Amino acid sequence: MAKAKPIIVLALIAAIISCLVIVVYNATYVDTSNVVTDKQAAALTTIYGGAKDDFSVIPTSEWEELFSGSGIADLQNVTKVFKKSDGSIAFESVVKGYKKGYDIMVGVKEKKVAGVAVVSVGEETPGLGTKTNDPAFLDMFKGKSGEVTIVKNQSAPAENEVNGVTSATYSSRGVALAVNTALKAYDLWTTNGGEAL
Q1: What's the domain range around 55?
Q2: Does the global pTM surpass 0.90?
Q3: 184 to each of 29, 132, 141, 144, 176, how far by Cα in Å?
Q4: What residues does 109 pair with on adjacent strands?
Q5: Residue 12 falls inside a structural domain
Q6: Number of domain units in the chain
């Protein structure tokens, strides 16, 4: 029994500390799921203009089940949906560029891309993949309404083609994936009883 006593005491101390950590966590936890962060607000402002207070988060409960039950695999990339006071909508997606974690915001209005902004480049290659954050590249997606494809060095890309950034093909495709996901999400939202946006 004397040999087991230190083990029992250590187990009790570990249990008490674990309980205290849980209590402190629950007492200090702040739900940020309905908060527009500064980075998100900057992306939304880039797309639509306005101030941070002009945007709100559409609760996950209003769209998650619809998107997850759609059978469209890309919709699982959507992490948040935002609405501007004028009814404009934006979808935030975390997609795979060269690496996972490329955070893109896409505004859609009247079934067309209103704008694209990068929230976070994640682990994209500095100087290559991060070039997809260039406004000139992102502006090429504006007005697109069908599935967008990335092409290389086309002097006159077709209607729904966008020239990818040189040496950043995967990152360019990641942006296109976010755009295509947003267009699908918008279509699904508006055809299944979501407010026409």
Answers
A1: 38-191
A2: no
A3: 34, 22, 15, 12, 12
A4: 112
A5: no
A6: 1
